[in-house]
């Protein structure tokens, strides 16, 4: 049976979206997702996203497979793309610009803005070592400025869980980081039992930082929404950033705010690229 798909991208973090509203089981397997994400032999993407029926009173459920077939709890750029995809699927039947979306990280709320951007209530960051999870500190302590040995070097890291796990390190010059070499060593470090996404951050000023990312299950990507949120939180915890900042990624900027209600808000684009049939 043919399956329709639509390719979307959020700052170059690209996804194959599948209308899965008629079933609670993803229409394709993780093995097939690996093949579809392949940039030479497949469609090419950082992941496959399924728009499923809502659970726990939500409008819809989002599930995602990374390009290595693993299933993360959340995806920030992906949920903006999913909101744009849902608006298109609903067409004239669309009742609201806001969606309550069930994810493995809880309910996340994206809102379509009048300028075409999508603003997402990303929830409250979790900060203890047990919540990351990591062995870098004792279970109920925050993981701020801890030392991690990677590639024969000591790195000063701060960890944040935005539904999925992130390890953030502040550097002088992001362009000088050998991502391809050290990214996998962070991702698979024994301090992170569920592997980790790693963000390298250069603080230009307290309201503007540059970021490069090595994603768990996807490698180098042009942007990571949860990573940008986690990095802003790490910047605030270490006294380097204001509570609102622009995070400049290789694919473009995201506006991130850690609001007084403790929730994180992320604003950025989501664009349709093409449609096709599998
Ligand atoms: N690119 C995403 C994050 C996707 C999931 C990640 N690779 C993981 O395994 O946690 C984003 O925009 O947040």
From TrEMBL:
Its main location: cytoplasm. The keyword Isomerase applies. InterPro entries: DAP_epimerase_AS, DAP_epimerase_DapF. GO terms for biological process: lysine biosynthetic process via diaminopimelate. Pathway: Amino-acid biosynthesis; L-lysine biosynthesis via DAP pathway; DL-2,6-diaminopimelate from LL-2,6-diaminopimelate: step 1/1. The keyword Cytoplasm applies. This is Diaminopimelate epimerase.
């Amino acid at each position: 049976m043919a399956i329709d798909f639509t390719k979307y991208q959020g700052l170059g973090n690209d996804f194959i979206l599948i209308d899965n509203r008629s079933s609670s089981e993803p229409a394709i397997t993780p093995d097939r997702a690996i093949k579809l994400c392949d940039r030479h032999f497949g469609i090419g993407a950082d992941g496959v996203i399924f728009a499923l029926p809502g659970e726990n009173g939500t409008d819809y459920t989002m599930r995602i497979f990374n390009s290595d077939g693993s299933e993360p709890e959340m995806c920030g750029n992906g949920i903006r793309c999913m909101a744009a995809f849902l608006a298109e699927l609903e067409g004239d039947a669309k009742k609201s610009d806001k969606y309550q979306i069930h994810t493995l990280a809880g309910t996340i709320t994206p809102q379509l803005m009048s300028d075409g951007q999508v603003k997402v209530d990303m929830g409250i960051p979790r900060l203890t070592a047990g919540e990351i999870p990591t062995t870098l500190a004792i279970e109920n302590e925050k993981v701020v400025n801890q030392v991690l040995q990677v590639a024969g070097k000591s790195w000063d890291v701060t960890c944040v869980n935005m539904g999925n796990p992130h390890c953030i390190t502040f550097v002088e010059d992001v362009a000088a980081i050998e991502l391809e070499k050290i990214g996998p060593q962070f991702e698979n470090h024994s301090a992170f039992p569920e592997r980790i996404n790693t963000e390298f951050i250069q603080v230009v000023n307290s309201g503007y930082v540059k970021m490069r990312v090595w994603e768990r299950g996807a490698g180098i990507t042009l942007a990571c929404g949860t990573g940008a949120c986690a990095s802003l939180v790490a910047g605030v915890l270490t006294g380097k950033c204001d509570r609102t900042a622009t995070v400049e990624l290789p694919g473009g900027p995201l506006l991130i705010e850690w609001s007084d209600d403790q929730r994180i808000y992320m604003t950025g684009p989501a664009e349709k690229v093409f449609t096709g049939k599998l």
